[in-house]
Amino acid sequence: MHSYRSHTCGALRPEHAGQEVRLAGWVHRKRDHGNLLFVDLRDMYGITQCVVDVSSPIFQQLEGQRPETVVSVTGKVVPRSAETKNDKLPTGGVELIVSAVSVLGDAAVLPMQVAGEQDYSEEMRLSYRFLDLRREKVRDNMLLRSKVIASIRKRMWDAGFVEFQTPILTASSPEGARDFLVPSRIHPGKFYALPQAPQQFKQLLMTSGFDRYFQIAACFRDEDSRADRSPGEFYQLDFEMAFVTQDDVFDTIAPVLSGVFEEFANGREVTKAPFPRITYDDAMAKYGSDKPDLRNPLLITDVTEAFRGSNFGLFAKNIEKGSIVRAIPAPKSADQPRSWFDKLNEWARAEGAGGLGYIQYKDGEAKGPIAKNLDADRIAQIKAITGVADGDCVFFVCDAKNKAAKFAGAVRTKICNELNLLEQNKFKFCWIVDFPMYERNEDTGQIEFSHNPFSMPQGEMDALLNKDPLEIKAFQYDIVCNGVELSSGAIRNHRPEIMYKAFEIAGYTKDDVESRFGGMLNAFKYGAPPHGGSAPGIDRIVMLLADEPNIREVTLFPMNGKAEDLLMQAPNTVSAKQLKELHIKLDLPKEVAKKVEEAPKA
Question: How many CB atoms sit inside 10 A of residue 196's CB?
């Protein structure tokens, strides 16, 4: 028999009854019933109940072990009686009568319990992440992550993709988020950067003749954390394809994603490929977001004309100044108490809006402050445009186009949640397409890239030469699931002359482009195929499948919201010797310098 274990703690079944076996794992729980001691022994695979009689010489030895002590136990497998079976455990039909025990690793008093479902602070959980990872829910999330990545890999291989690893130490990129910089010891004063994404490398692979590339890529960005974004680093399914159109990319990757979600959906419904396509303009108009949650059935409509020149002066005056009015339906809400409407008004003010006007269509009449200032024809027009019926309400947002769209989207989400309209147990995918190539900076008035500067403009050079930049669309797309943006992607601008012109419109000179993107641009001058790709976020995929609200719950060793690793104590100070080797002198703010001086030296 193996010195540590012959079976895992999830393996034993009634057919093993009568066998002498050895298990190894952590003491999960102990229950002393006087004459009998029950110990639940846990490993990665499950839990087995072990039993020791008080007459056994090992009773006291096992009774004295703290929770999370690592032990190896030997004994006989016996079936449980019908009354003592535990149907919640795969091993619940048997138990192990222990005849010998060996302590493999002592456990100190625990700062947090592994057994049970107690809530602990983020600081506690991240400081003792190795204990947190032993907890069932967290462990299952990490195993799910591993299985999802394995499934993605196989599906990408089956689709003809080749896996490569691109460099981690690279050059700083002037675009996008802030870089993490790495000083060079042998090149004083120069720095590497950790890649924000393998964008330029994967495009270089296409110019090198590799037709379909992918990797599970580590990306590094010095940006603040959010519920769906880890600070510092994250992982993505990075892929690129040569000689493809936008349709080819969609037809290839949609089955991969839908297949992965179906594999791990546990009965939840998944959108079948091909995914529906929604233009950026329609997404902002109908959903108030470029990452719409299609489980929400509410649709936003434009009712500007119904208020233009009306007696509702607040809206009418703003419309003359260029504002628009968006309407958000609220089904079967006309009988809500006045306090419900007042709370929504308070919420709107807290969000920075002036309030939230509404009309109640109730008992064949239109009620509410707005209805009192509109004639019957306008009220009927609003009802027809929004598609509401008697018993419904309509809420209104009036503002400049972009602000109205975004706040209407927030109202749509709020109303959906208030009325419990969100469809459950579904993963609803869509593509958002036809993003604008450029936008105007509201502060400077300058034309800027709105999304990805390396996207091919629709209409290519002709569009750049002859169209208003703000009307040019890009071959650019996002994959969205349940209101979460899984990735952005594009058909790339692989023609140097088109790239120079595209950047010129955004205020870059030819020298700017060559100094910032010279490596990739130079490669394009030696024959580059049309190509495109995307990079769905691994962390976000697993977060959705695990039904977790925070990405920390599907990350092995996450940082806290301040981008600190509480377990490994990073970031931290380094020695003067290390700084000297890197030719670095610190120029710290006074208050920080004082803390560094007062910190204990390693």
Answer: 20
Using the CB atoms, write b or e for 121-134: b if 16+ within 10 Å.
Answer: eeeebbbbbebbeb
Separation of alpha carbons 355 and 19, rounded Å? 72
**Tokens in use for 232?**
């510092």
Helix (H, G, I), strand (E, B) or coil at 534: strand
Short-list 91, 95, 13, 9, CA closest to 45: 9
Residues 484, 229 contacting (CB under 8 angstroms): no
pLDDT of 35 higher than 60 = yes
Taken in order 451, 452, 453, 455, is the CA torsion positive or negative? negative
Closest alpha carbon to 176 in 471, 488, 585: 488
Quote the pTM value.
0.92
Tokens read off for 598? 């007062």
Nearest-CA neighbor of 35 among 49, 52, 57, 50? 52
Q: What's the half-sphere exposure (Cβ side, CA atoms, 13 Å) at 419? A: 22
C-alpha to C-alpha distances, 362 to 64, 294, 310, 460, nearest whole angstrom: 71, 28, 22, 53
How many other C-beta atoms are found inside a 10 Å radius of the C-beta of residue 167?
Answer: 11
Closest among 79, 121, 124, 118 to 97, alpha carbons compared: 79
Cα distance between residue 354 and residue 347, in whole Å: 10
By three-state DSSP, how is residue 276 classified?
A: coil
| 3-state secondary structure at position 482 | coil
Q: Kindly tell me the burial class for residue 150, based on how many C-beta atoms sit within 10 Å of its own C-beta (0-12, 13-18, 19 or more).
A: exposed
Query: Residue 173: pLDDT band by 50, 70, 90 thresholds?
Result: confident
pLDDT digits (tens, 9 = 90+) for 423-438: 999 999 999 999 999 9
Q: How far apart are CA 602 and CA 592, in angstroms?
A: 18
Q: Which long-range contacts (CB under 8 A, 24 or more apart) does 580-587 make?
A: 581/185, 582/183, 582/184, 582/185, 583/183, 583/185, 583/188, 583/189, 584/183
